[in-house]
Amino acid sequence: MTQHTVRMMERLGLPTLRKAADWSAYAAVIFLALGAQQAWAKVSPEEAEKLKNGTLTPSGAEPGANADGTITAWEGGITTPPPGYPGAPEARYPNIFPNDKPKFVITTQNLDQYKDKLTPGQLALFAKFPDTYKMPVYETKRTFANNDWVYEWNYKNALNAVVTNEGNGFEGAAVGIPFPIPKDGFEPIWNHKARFRGQSVRRWNNQAAVTTSGNFNLATLQEDVQFWYNMKERTPDTVNNLLLSFMQIRHAPSRLRGEVLLVHETLDQVSEERRAWLYNPGQRRVRRAPNVGHDNPGTGADGLRTNDQTDMFNGSLERYTWKLVGKKEIYIPNNSYDIHQDKYKYEDLVNPGHMNQDPARYELHRVWVVDSNLKEGTSHIYGRRVYYISEDAWQMAVVDVYDKRGELWRVQEAHTIQAADPKSGIVATAPILEAIYDLQATRYLLQAMNNEHEESHEVPFDEKYFTTGNMKQLAPK
Q1: Which of 2, 132, 330, 407 would suit a FRET pair with 428, their CA atoms being 20 to 30 Å apart?
Q2: Do 409 and 310 belong together in one domain?
Q3: Which of 135, 197, 143, 156 shows the shortest CA–CA distance to 361?
Q4: Long-range contacts, stretch 202-205, CB < 8 angstroms, 24+ apart
C-alpha cells in the first residue's frame, strides 16, 4: 500500500490495513470512499443552476442585500469603462466615485461599536496604533464583474471540477472560478489563486519596506504575467497543469538592478514543482532558482514578507491544513480608486507605523473564512493563517498571520479596484496596493503600487516571451 493511499485512508477514517488479505477485504470499501470524495467536490446540476437562475451570482455570491441593508444587492457590477478612459498605459484608471464621502470613520474611540465586524488582525492594528490608526468606511458598492464567457465557465466548472492529490491540485476546470459553490477549505483558496484577472498583464509591483521611523527604500519591479489557465480558448484538457507564467524585471534598488526572474507556475505543485530561473547580470548567466516559494524571503521586501505572500497567497498548499469556517461580514478594502491616483506619490502613502489611511476606502462585505494551520512534520515560519476572501471577487481581502506560538505576527490587506478595459474588453477586479504589517517589529511593507509608474494593462505576449532565452534581453542596462 502506498503512502499516498495510507494518508487518504486516514483522512477518510478507514483502517490502514497492510496485509494482502486485509487489503482485498477492504478494497471495495476504499475505492467507493475515494470515488465519493472525488464526486463530493462537484455540485449537482440543481445546485449549479443557482449560478444561472439568480439564487447565486454567476460567481457564487449571495446576490441579495443583508438583513439591515448595510451590504447592498449585487446588480451586475461594473462592466463598461469610465467615459473617456482610453485604456492606454499612460492613462491612469480614474476614480469613478470622486464625490463619495465616508459614512463614518472607525477609531479607537468608537471601536467597540464595530469590533464584531473586524478581524483579530485589524483589531490588533487599532491596539498597536491607538492614536493614529483609523478606517474610513464608505457605502458598500458591489462593483465586481467578469465577462459573460467567464461566467459560463464558472457554471461548467461547478459541475465538473474536483480537487486532486489531497487538495494540492484540481482538474475538470478552466478559465473561471473552479469552485463557485465551495464545500471544502481547499476550494476558496483555489478560487483565489485561479480567479479571472484578465488573460495577461504588464504591471509595476513597486514595494516600500517601511522602517519604524517611516523611512523606506523603494524596490521597483516590472512584472509581466500570462494567465494561461484563464485564456479564453482554454479547456480542462489543455490546462496541462500550468496556471501562469511570470517574468519579473528588477530596476531598483541598485543591488537588484538587471536581475530577471522567470517563473512557470504549475497548478499542482506536489506533482510538478514550480519552475523558476534567475538571470544574474554580474555573472551574465541564467540559473535555476529553487528557493522561490513558501517562506523564503520575498524580493526587495527587507524580510517583511515571504514568497508565498505576494498576491496575499500564492504557491503550493501542501504545508497547511485548510478548514472552511463559513461566512462573516467584515470591513474590507474595496473600490480603492482614490489611493490609486497619481496625485499620491509613494511617499504620500507612507506614515510611521502604518500606511496613510486617509485615502483608503473600506466597505462592509461578506467574506469566506478559511483557517489554515501548519501541518506537523512540515516547515514554515508561520504557524497559522486565517484568510478572509471576498464572496464576490474571490479576492483575499485580509489575512491574519500567526507565529508558531499562536501570537498574531502580521496582518495583510489588499486594496482593489474594479476595472473595465476598452481595448481588450476585459472586466476584472485588480489589486492596486497590498499592505503587510509586522506587529512585532512595528514595520510594514507596501507592495503592488504603481502611482508614479505606468498603469497596468494587457499585453499580447507570444509563447517565446516566457523562456529562459529571453531573460538576458529583458534585463535593464
Answers
A1: 330
A2: yes
A3: 135
A4: 202/89, 202/454, 202/456, 202/457, 202/458, 202/459, 203/448, 203/450, 203/456, 204/449, 204/450, 204/453, 204/454, 204/456, 205/248, 205/310, 205/447, 205/448, 205/449, 205/450
In angstroms, the CA 178 to CA 395 distance is: 14
From first to last of the 477 residues of the chain, give the pLDDT tens digit. Answer: 444 334 433 433 444 444 444 434 444 443 334 443 443 458 999 999 999 999 999 999 999 999 999 999 999 999 999 999 999 999 999 999 999 999 999 999 999 999 999 999 999 999 999 999 999 999 999 999 999 999 999 999 999 999 999 999 999 999 999 999 999 999 999 999 999 999 999 999 999 999 999 999 999 999 999 999 999 999 999 999 999 999 999 999 999 999 999 999 999 999 999 999 999 999 999 999 988 999 999 999 999 999 999 999 999 999 999 999 999 999 999 999 999 999 999 999 999 999 999 999 999 999 999 999 999 999 999 999 999 999 999 999 999 999 999 999 999 999 999 999 999 999 999 999 999 999 999 999 999 999 999 999 999 998 899 999 999 999 998
- What is the C-alpha separation between 397 and 412, in angstroms, rounded? 8
45 lies in a domain?
A: no
CA proximity to 350, closest of 207, 233, 456: 207
Number of domains in the chain: 2
Considering the domain architecture, whether residues 95 and 35 belong to the same structural domain is answered as: no
28 and 146 in a single domain? The answer is: no
Under 8 Å between Cβ of 9 and 30: yes
Decide: 205 and 223 in contact? Cβ < 8 Å.
yes
* Distance between CA atoms of residues 234 and 157, nearest Å: 12
CATH number at residue 373: 2.50.20.10
**In this structure, what C-alpha cell is assigned to residue 277?**
530561473
The reply to whether 119 falls in a domain is yes
Let me know whether 252 and 277 are in one domain.
Answer: yes
Which residue type, as a one-letter code, is found at position 97?
F
Provide the domain limits for residue 34: 3-40
Residue 110, all three cell numbers: 468608537
Q: In terms of domains, do 33 and 62 share one?
A: no
